[in-house]
Amino acid sequence: MRSRWAAGSTLVTGAGVGVLAAEAVVAKMCENQPTPERVRVDALGSVGMRAGTMGSAFAASVVDTMSMGGRAYANGRLVTVRLGADAQHLTLPDAETVKSAGAPTGELMAAQWVSGAGSVTLTTALAPTSAIARAILPPAGNLLSIPAVQRLAVRRVAAVKTKATPEPCRHSWVHAVVMWPDDTRRGGWLRADDGMDYAAAVAAETAARLARGQGKPGAYTPAAALGPDLAGAAGGTFILG
Fold first, then answer.
1. How much of the chain is in helix, strand and coil states, percent to nearest 5?
2. Rounded to an integer, what distance in angstroms lies between the CA atom of residue 1 and that of residue 3?
3. Tell me, what CATH number does 216's domain have?
4. What confidence tens digit (pLDDT) does each residue in 8-30 have?
5. Whose C-alpha in 83, 154, 176, 236 is 20 to 30 A from the C-alpha of 93?
6. What is the number of structural domains in the chain?
């Protein structure tokens, strides 16, 4: 990796819908402001599903998430919290509603890095939000931490058949609330279309900018490498309070 950096290579992790959208809207609200005390992010991707099977890659991601448990930042340190905690029922700017709950994702780390806040929490629409599911998640996660059980679960989940379904909402959204020690509080949104379509647009825009020499040697999240306006150039729209 060092030899690649010395040669001018740039590694951009999370160049998709979630990480960029989360860090971009937080970065926009933190521009020209002191370091905030707390940040909350709600990643509310909306994705249409094709008929088929889950597949091993997605299944492994689901099982890994359940076995890890939840994550948050407290006093600047990454800590373990209850998976499915901090459930939210949000009204979107276009008047649709969506539920979300806590889960360990890259968006959490990106929001902390870009803001520097000591306390950061994140919820996602991909997490189960029913009371029953959230009660089952912690013991299920403990069971899935056993390697043999985890491998079996990945095989079973990978074979699950899915039906073609439309996007649950008209748009994908990321919501963020940023709070400062003096009780100043700002909220903002980033709107995009279908999550997978936006992810492809983000990857393409990132690659195009790197090809034009706009990157810098090293490893970065998308907004850290190319600025938060990358989210808008890929088709996202900021709505900042």
1. 40, 25, 35
2. 5
3. 3.30.360.10
4. 788 898 887 789 999 999 999 99
5. 83
6. 1
